[in-house]
């Protein structure tokens, strides 16, 4: 099989990039029957009708942190950082984070800056990706308070506007419980509480996984042979309770439907050869592209993804390249909204 990234490109007008969400339960979903049936556009709440009693919906319960901080150098220059993940505190109990920084020249090892009003020290530079290790003159608990007060919602780079108060709720899913993501698992943004109640009333199981989405989700693939691409690691956890729910549904013949590429990566990472799960936690570097055989996922609800991204490759591995690009073409022709705040597609 040839692996050409350029085969996963598609054209779209910029005005289809959603800069605001229509609201939970108010988006549109392109239904793509896996058996090759006719695709159709539905209102998000109507997808409840496509589920059967005994099916299992798998969602990601990560919570987005206000990870973008602004500040200044000792000389008054403006800087910004995106906190990627919390690290072990210093011996003195100070919070430490890995972060993406801008501009890089302001963040030399040993430099002192102020971020969100907090004295910050640059401890280390990661050569492979340019990320910095930053130490803050606050405890982790104090730093969490600072972020909640002064931090900004880390909107994706293609949403070309500053974040605001609306984003604090809009960019958080109804399943959000455990803080740690710097990007939302956006397929879950289609769900309202009412849709969730309706699914449960129908006898659909709901299981949760945790995957703290990192900025690697927006990372461009820079090689034409995409099999050479290296994914960023992301922390995940599947508890015994949730593994049991998914395994029960599978044993009873229910379909396992993942909400988003993040939930997909978790359960495909932990599934055995027969598609059953054991509870575990760790870091996944899973990268799925055409040729991969899914072990457990029967259906996938996902957003439309950036051209030539690892996410469109994951979808193409599940639905086929031509099907995926045909679905994207239909979405563009029907002016569906694209990407994180946009509409979605359900392959089932």
Automatic annotation (TrEMBL):
Q: Which Gene3D superfamilies match?
A: QueA-like
Its UniProt entry gives the catalysed reaction(s) as:
7-aminomethyl-7-carbaguanosine(34) in tRNA + S-adenosyl-L-methionine = epoxyqueuosine(34) in tRNA + adenine + L-methionine + 2 H(+)
InterPro entries annotated for this entry?
QueA (IPR003699), QueA_dom1 (IPR042118), QueA_dom2 (IPR042119), QueA_sf (IPR036100)
Entry keyword Isomerase: yes
Principal subcellular localization: cytoplasm
| EC number(s) recorded for this UniProt protein | 2.4.99.17
For whether the record's keyword set contains Cell membrane, the answer is no
Annotated Pfam families: Queuosine_synth
Per its UniProt record, what SUPFAM superfamilies does this chain match? QueA-like (SSF111337)
Report the record's Gene Ontology biological process terms.
Answer: tRNA queuosine(34) biosynthetic process
> GO cellular component terms?
cytoplasm
The protein's enzyme class = transferase
Q: Which residues form the signal peptide?
A: none
Q: Recite the UniProt keywords alphabetically.
A: Cytoplasm, Isomerase, Queuosine biosynthesis, S-adenosyl-L-methionine, Transferase
**Where does the UniProt annotation locate this protein?**
Cytoplasm
Q: In which pathway does it act?
A: tRNA modification; tRNA-queuosine biosynthesis
MF GO annotations: S-adenosylmethionine:tRNA ribosyltransferase-isomerase activity
Please describe the quaternary structure of this protein.
Monomer.
Q: What does this protein do?
A: Transfers and isomerizes the ribose moiety from AdoMet to the 7-aminomethyl group of 7-deazaguanine (preQ1-tRNA) to give epoxyqueuosine (oQ-tRNA).
- Give the UniProt family note: Belongs to the QueA family.
- The name this protein carries in UniProt is S-adenosylmethionine:tRNA ribosyltransferase-isomerase
Which taxonomic lineage does the organism of this UniProt entry have?
A: Bacteria, Pseudomonadati, Fibrobacterota, Fibrobacteria, Fibrobacterales
Q: Which gene encodes it?
A: queA
């Amino acid at each position: 099989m040839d692996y050409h990234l350029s085969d996963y490109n598609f054209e779209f007008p910029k005005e289809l990039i959603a800069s605001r969400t229509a609201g939970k339960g108010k988006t549109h979903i392109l239904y793509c029957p896996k058996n090759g049936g006719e695709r159709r556009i539905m209102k998000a709440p109507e997808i409840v009708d496509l589920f059967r009693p005994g099916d299992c919906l798998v969602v990601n319960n990560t919570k987005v942190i206000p990870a973008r901080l602004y500040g200044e150098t000792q000389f008054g220059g403006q800087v910004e950082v995106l906190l990627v993940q919390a690290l072990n505190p210093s011996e003195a109990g100070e919070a430490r984070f890995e972060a993406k920084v801008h501009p890089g020249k302001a963040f030399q090892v040993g430099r002192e800056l102020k971020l969100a009003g907090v004295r910050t020290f640059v401890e280390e530079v990661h050569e492979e990706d340019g990320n910095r290790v930053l130490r803050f003159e606050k405890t982790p608990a104090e730093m969490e308070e600072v972020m909640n007060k002064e931090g900004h919602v880390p909107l994706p780079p293609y949403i070309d506007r500053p974040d605001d108060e609306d984003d604090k709720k809009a960019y958080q899913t109804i399943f959000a419980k455990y803080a740690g993501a710097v990007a939302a698992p956006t397929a879950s943004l289609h769900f309202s509480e009412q849709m969730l109640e309706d699914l449960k009333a129908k006898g659909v199981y709901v299981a949760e996984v945790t995957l703290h989405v990192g900025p690697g989700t927006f990372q461009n693939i820079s090689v034409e042979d995409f099999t050479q691409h290296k994914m960023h690691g992301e922390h995940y956890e599947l508890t015994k309770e949730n593994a049991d729910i998914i395994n029960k549904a599978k044993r009873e013949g229910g379909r396992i439907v993942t909400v988003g590429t993040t939930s997909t990566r978790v359960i495909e990472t932990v599934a055995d050869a027969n598609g059953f799960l054991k509870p575990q936690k760790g870091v996944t570097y899973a990268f799925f592209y055409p040729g991969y055989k899914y072990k457990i996922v029967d259906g996938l609800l996902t957003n439309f993804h950036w051209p030539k991204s690892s996410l469109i490759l994951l979808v193409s591995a599940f639905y086929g390249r031509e099907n995926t690009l045909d679905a994207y073409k239909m979405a563009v022709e029907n002016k569906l909204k694209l990407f994180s705040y946009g509409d979605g597609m359900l392959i089932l």
